[in-house]
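Might I ask for a little of your time on a matter of protein folding? The record follows directly beneath this note:
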Amino acid sequence: MMLDQNKITQLSGFALFQGINELGLLAIANVARYTHLDKGDQITNMVTNYPALTLIVNGELKVIQLTSSGREQPLYFLRAGDVEGEEEVLTQNLMDTSLIATKDSTILRIARDDLVVLLDVYPQLSRQLSMNMAYKLIRLSKQRAWLLAETVEERLWNYLLDLAQELGKNSFVLPISKKDLAAYLGTVPETLSRRLAALEQQGRLQRGNRGQIDLLI
């Protein structure tokens, strides 16, 4: 029961399950399965071959898609409290994406068949999943727009502005490695470092100790 209570506490922290009573959280806990991922571990949907909802308990993951040349293209990043797989569990369509842990991470996975039973009992879950999916599509559309910027510097600045808005503050540490950020922005780490330095020289940001970045806006 101790394990279930710990899991219930973790599940209650997800916005997806707000409004679900403890009995409902217990039912969810009974079908949610822990998976620990070491940094670099990967979950590929087309290999696991079943739709599942993934809840990020702690750590950090990136969602990637392979390009036609076989290169990894990061689509977005997931942190504690994020949910992935809404479209798959609602439509049964497996996406050709993979999850890769960029840090040691713990996730909970709920198989679609188990989730369908829960949706019948708690219809608000279906509404919340749909809202999550709509929000993600809006965010991705916005990101695609600024990723089309011609220069790396513009793309980097747009990313930093978007991150500041998401975090609700202008001072932060980059939540992902420079290598992952460079791949996300379609460049290489060396160019990314030069563009950060250029933005600092222009007075648009200031870099501090331990990767601290202050946007001067």
